[in-house]
Every structure is written in structure tokens, then in C-alpha cells.
Design a protein that fits this description.
The chain is α+β, with helices and mostly antiparallel strands. The chain folds into three domains: 4-105, Arc Repressor Mutant, subunit A (Orthogonal Bundle), CATH 1.10.10; 119-206, SH3 type barrels, CATH 2.30.30; 219-297, no CATH class. It is 39% helix and 25% strand. The chain contains ten helices and eleven strands. The chain has helices at residues 4-19, 25-33, 41-55, 76-91, 97-105, 122-130, 199-206, 227-235, 262-270, 281-297; strands at 59-62, 67-70, 133-140, 147-160, 163-169, 175-179, 183-192, 219-225, 243-247, 252-258, 275-279. A five-stranded antiparallel sheet has the order 6-5-4-3-7, with helices on one face. A hairpin with a 6-residue loop joins strand 3 (133-140) and strand 4 (147-160). Helix 1 packs antiparallel against helix 4 (76-91). The protein is globular, with a radius of gyration of 23 Å. The termini are far apart.
């Protein structure tokens, strides 16, 4: 049975193969070395065989390209495998090969996501932030699919909805946020930038939900929820500032002190008719407009 340390190596090998088609053993040796895991080509080859036979992953070797790659265009099976590895490591259970995993799959269902993608950048990004080193990389825009080159001063790493992001300062001192999973050709530059306390940046992002920061002022948001929906908000707060202002048998009023943004509106819309925005008026009107637009879709 694979140990937790071996499962970690499996995850790194999988991540490398996903990002680079026809990954050679040499590529994998160099990649693992960047994670302080020195392994021989023979050892890595054995790991790949174990993933094939013990866990049923469809990994093929191309003699012409002299590299390994996954064969399925649908990578859901790989994501499920990675989720099972995380479960095994967190719960201290043995994964025990494909038969045991198939048995567990009858008992456990995972949310399909890509939270592990890009995690190989974490070490370099932390190093760059700690040592105030510029970063170079290409970034694929989520909306336009356009790839652009960037050179930033990395300030802060942030996790949101199972994804990792790096927040960096641009030449004009504005801040941009980049998803790990959309970074390619990442390089830590030898050039350093002047030390700057990132407490201000951290504070700015603590004043919002998610990633969309603006220079707008903090506001007091008041939300009225049904008693049933309020139970979910109490156990999973929207923001660290959240507290209950008023509770009756018919409704519960929550207060949040933050900068309203798109992510906040998304959270409110997800609660449907279980929530009403009481204040501020600007947020109330914005949510109303979103609801009206959604209703108009069903009138056509």
C-alpha cells in the first residue's frame, strides 16, 4: 500500500504530466528536485507503473516523443484519484489500490474541482515573496483566453473556493490577482524590489469577500434571512466581521462590515428568496437589478 509520502509524489507526478504533454523521466527528476525530492529515473518509472496497475490511471508512454501522458481527454478520473489521496492523507486511512478505491467510491462523492492545479508554483511564489524578487510569467485570461506576459512584485498568496491566487503590485502600484492554474513559464527574477510592508495589502483583502478588491469605502451591510437559512450562515459565515444583530421567530438580521463586491453579490443571489438586503441602498438596488435581469430571461 502506498504511504502518504508516496501519495504526495504521485500527486506531483500527475500535476507535471497534466501541464506538460509527453513528460520525460528526466523532466520528472528535475521537477521533483525542485520540491526537494531527489528520485532516480528508475524509481519514478516504478511510481508510474504503480499508478497504472494499483489505481488504474491511463498513463501511456510515447516512444517517438519519449515521454508519458494521460490518454483521457476527460480528466475527471484523475481528479477523483487526487481527491481520494487527499482523503487518505487527511483521515489517516490506506488508499489500498484500485479495488479499495472503487469500494470507497460507493461511500464517498467528491465535488469536481481543479484545486490542485498550479500548486507546483507555491514554493517559487513563496520564495519570491519572502525575498522580494520580481516574478515573470504568462497568464491566460479566464474570460478572453488571451495569454499575456507579466512582470510583478508578488505581495500575497490567497486561497478562495479551492483555488490559489497570487496578488502582485504592478508598475503603477495597482494590484492584480492571478490564479495559479493559469500561470505558465513562471520565473523568479534575480532583480529585487524595495521592501514594503504587506500589512496594508492583507488588510485590504480582509475587507472583502473573495478576490475583487476596490478602493471603495467600508460599508455596513445588513441582511435579513429566514430562520432556516440563518443556520447555514451561522455555521459558514460570509465574512469575519459577521454578527447577528436581531433574531426573531420569523427572521434573523446579520451585519457585515466590509467593502461590497461581486463575490458578495454572488453569495446573496445564491440564497434566493431566503435573504433580503436591508442596507446599504446601493447594494440593495444592485441585487434587485440582478434579480430583475434573471427574471427577464424567463419572460422571453
Amino acid at each position: 500500500m502506498a504511504t502518504h509520502a508516496t501519495l504526495h509524489i504521485y500527486a506531483l507526478i500527475i500535476d507535471k504530466m497534466r501541464r506538460q504533454k509527453n513528460t520525460s523521466l528526466k523532466d520528472l527528476v528535475e521537477f521533483l528536485e525542485t520540491h526537494d525530492l531527489a528520485k532516480s529515473e528508475r524509481t519514478i518509472s516504478r511510481y508510474i507503473e504503480q499508478m497504472r496497475h494499483e489505481f488504474g490511471l491511463d498513463i501511456k508512454y510515447d516512444n517517438g516523443e519519449k515521454g508519458y501522458s494521460f490518454q483521457h481527454s476527460d480528466e475527471r478520473e484523475v481528479d477523483v484519484f487526487l481527491n481520494f489521496m487527499q482523503l487518505a492523507q487527511s483521515a489517516g486511512i490506506e488508499l489500498g489500490g484500485i479495488k479499495n478505491r472503487q469500494a470507497l467510491s460507493q461511500l464517498v462523492q467528491f465535488d469536481y474541482n481543479q484545486r490542485l492545479r498550479g500548486i507546483e508554483h507555491l514554493k517559487d511564489l513563496l520564495f519570491a515573496i519572502q525575498n522580494r524578487r520580481y516574478l515573470k510569467f504568462n497568464h491566460v485570461n479566464f474570460h478572453t483566453e488571451k495569454t499575456s506576459a507579466y512582470w510583478i512584485k508578488p505581495i500575497l498568496l490567497k486561497q478562495y473556493l479551492y483555488r490559489w491566487y497570487v496578488i502582485g503590485a504592478m508598475d503603477d502600484d495597482s494590484y492584480r490577482t492571478f490564479g495559479f492554474d493559469r500561470l505558465t513559464d513562471l520565473e523568479v527574477d534575480i532583480k529585487t524590489f524595495a521592501a514594503k510592508n504587506n500589512k496594508e495589502v492583507r488588510k485590504n483583502f480582509e475587507q472583502i469577500i473573495g478576490l475583487n478588491y476596490s478602493n471603495h469605502k467600508m460599508q455596513t451591510v445588513r441582511l435579513q434571512l429566514t430562520p432556516l437559512q440563518s443556520k447555514y450562515l451561522i455555521t459558514a459565515p460570509l465574512h469575519a466581521s459577521q454578527y447577528v444583530e436581531l433574531e426573531t421567530s420569523k427572521s434573523v438580521v446579520f451585519v457585515l462590515n466590509l467593502i461590497p463586491n461581486y463575490e458578495l453579490i454572488q453569495k446573496i443571489l445564491m440564497m434566493g428568496n431566503q435573504v433580503k438586503v436591508l442596507a446599504p441602498t446601493s447594494l440593495r438596488n444592485e441585487v434587485k437589478n440582478h434579480l430583475k435581469s434573471a427574471l427577464d430571461l424567463y419572460k422571453k
